[in-house]
């Protein structure tokens, strides 16, 4: 921390010098913004040629994550870096949209995935499936993935603890408890609950999105015992994806990728996701 002498004339001199330095930094940021916009101008026609939507959720998550890592190394608040990236990404998207409107009157072909209904429309069909069947399938898949990929020492820290999983857009909720190395449906209230959409929970499960990014962007929320929730999150980060059974890994990856692309297609056409 810089300590300023208490003498008024010294403090005024320090304030003046600091403001001059801040002005120079601000000038440099404007110059860098101009350079960034020139690069974005090259991105826009490339996206149109490839029929790629302006918004790329995966790419934006990577940009935010890289900024947060750099902020951490420089001892800066991650939230400040995230706000700056949100401004820059928003400016880039608006620039691309404006250039697309002025330079290409014809609309790019829309993805056929926009025809795939968002998960919230699956509530009615799922409600026709007996709850016992849904619960048994969910518990069996999760239990097999966890038991086959983590050893007993890893799992001991969450043994006999109750974790809830709520799929917000499907109105589904499970409370799970680890006993004897296997997950079981718990009859008591959850100690901690992870809330998220079907798409985001599947992206997390398939390791196409990391937990930190999803929680920071508030696409996943944690309520209840925060310590338990963070412990489970750390276990998920340590889950060796390549050791999961192929019968689980392949469909999980494909379903998550399809839902992610469908959501992007819905956003591109202005539909709710």
From TrEMBL:
<dbReference type="InterPro" id="IPR016830">
    <property type="entry name" value="UbiT"/>
</dbReference>
<dbReference type="InterPro" id="IPR003033">
    <property type="entry name" value="SCP2_sterol-bd_dom"/>
</dbReference>
<dbReference type="GO" id="GO:0046417">
    <property type="term" value="P:chorismate metabolic process"/>
</dbReference>
<protein>
    <recommendedName>
        <fullName>Ubiquinone biosynthesis accessory factor UbiT</fullName>
    </recommendedName>
</protein>
<comment type="pathway">
    <text>Cofactor biosynthesis; ubiquinone biosynthesis.</text>
</comment>
<dbReference type="Pfam" id="PF01817">
    <property type="entry name" value="CM_2"/>
</dbReference>
<dbReference type="InterPro" id="IPR036979">
    <property type="entry name" value="CM_dom_sf"/>
</dbReference>
<dbReference type="InterPro" id="IPR002701">
    <property type="entry name" value="CM_II_prokaryot"/>
</dbReference>
<keyword id="KW-0831">Ubiquinone biosynthesis</keyword>
<comment type="similarity">
    <text>Belongs to the UbiT family.</text>
</comment>
<dbReference type="Pfam" id="PF02036">
    <property type="entry name" value="SCP2"/>
</dbReference>
<comment type="function">
    <text>Required for O(2)-independent ubiquinone (coenzyme Q) biosynthesis. Likely functions as an accessory factor.</text>
</comment>
<dbReference type="InterPro" id="IPR036263">
    <property type="entry name" value="Chorismate_II_sf"/>
</dbReference>
<dbReference type="GO" id="GO:0006744">
    <property type="term" value="P:ubiquinone biosynthetic process"/>
</dbReference>
<dbReference type="GO" id="GO:0004106">
    <property type="term" value="F:chorismate mutase activity"/>
</dbReference>
<feature type="domain" description="Chorismate mutase">
    <location>
        <begin position="9"/>
        <end position="100"/>
    </location>
</feature>
<dbReference type="InterPro" id="IPR036527">
    <property type="entry name" value="SCP2_sterol-bd_dom_sf"/>
</dbReference>
């Amino acid at each position: 921390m810089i300590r300023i002498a208490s003498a008024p004339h010294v403090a005024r001199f320090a304030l003046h010098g600091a403001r001059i330095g801040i002005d120079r930094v601000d000038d440099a940021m404007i110059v860098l913004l101009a350079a960034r916009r020139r690069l974005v101008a090259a991105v826009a026609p490339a996206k149109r040629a490839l029929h790629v939507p302006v918004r790329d959720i995966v790419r934006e998550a990577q940009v935010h994550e890289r900024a947060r890592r750099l902020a951490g190394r420089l001892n800066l608040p991650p939230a400040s870096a995230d706000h700056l990236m949100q401004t820059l990404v928003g400016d880039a998207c608006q620039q691309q949209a404006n250039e697309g409107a002025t330079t290409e009157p014809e609309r790019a072909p829309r993805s056929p995935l926009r025809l795939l209904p968002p998960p919230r429309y699956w509530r009615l069909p799922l409600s026709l499936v007996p709850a016992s069947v849904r619960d048994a399938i969910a518990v069996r898949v999760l239990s097999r993935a966890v038991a086959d990929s983590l050893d007993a020492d890893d799992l001991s820290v969450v043994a006999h603890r109750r974790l809830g999983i709520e799929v917000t857009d499907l109105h589904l909720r499970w409370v799970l408890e680890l006993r004897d190395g296997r997950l079981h449906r718990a009859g008591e209230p959850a100690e901690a609950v992870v809330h998220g959409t079907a798409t985001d929970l599947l992206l997390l499960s398939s390791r196409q999105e990391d937990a930190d990014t999803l929680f920071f962007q508030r696409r996943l929320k944690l309520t209840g015992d925060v310590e338990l929730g963070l412990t489970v999150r750390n276990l998920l980060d340590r889950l060796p994806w390549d050791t999961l059974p192929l019968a689980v890994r392949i469909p999980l990856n494909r379903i998550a990728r399809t839902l992610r692309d469908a959501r992007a297609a819905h956003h591109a056409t202005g539909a709710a996701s």
